[in-house]
Amino acid sequence: MKGVAISGGAVLYLAPKLFPLVLLLYFFVQRKGPRSAPLLLLAIVVFFVFLIFLYPHCYLWLVPAVLFLIGIGVLANVSALKEMRR
Fold first, then answer.
1. Rounded to the nearest 5 degrees, what angle is found at the Cα of 37, between the Cα atoms of 32 and 43?
2. pLDDT tens readout for residues 2-55
3. Which domain range does residue 65 map to?
4. How many domains does the chain have?
5. pTM
């Protein structure tokens, strides 16, 4: 997956409390099935739930920033998404 290090660095900068969770979710998804769409969506939902609970005072600007990072990751990995559809 392209851009994982950059996205991880951005999360570390924007929401340092969530960085251990991001590492845990990343390695969990990589071990269980990196091309599994339901597993990826579950990891994203877990991330956003923790984001809202750990940063209740600023989640309104963190959520769009993280969605932007996810969008960039999707654009950078279009070939992987096409492979997931098969």
1. 65
2. 677 888 888 889 999 999 999 999 999 999 987 788 998 999 999 999 999 999
3. 4-85
4. 1
5. 0.82
> If we measure between CA atoms, which residue out of 16, 13, 53, 49 comes closest to residue 41?
49
**Predicted pLDDT of residue 78:** 80
Sign of the torsion angle spanned by Cα atoms 6, 41, 63, 20: negative
The upper half-sphere exposure of residue 30, i.e. CA atoms within 13 Å in the direction of its Cβ, equals 8
Exposed / middle / buried, residue 11 (Cβ in 10 Å: 0-12, 13-18, 19+): buried
CB-side neighbour CA atoms (13 Å) of 47: 26
pLDDT confidence of residue 86: 67
Q: What is the DSSP string of 14-52?
A: H-GGGHHHHHHHHHHHHHH-TT-HHHHHHHHHHHHHHHH
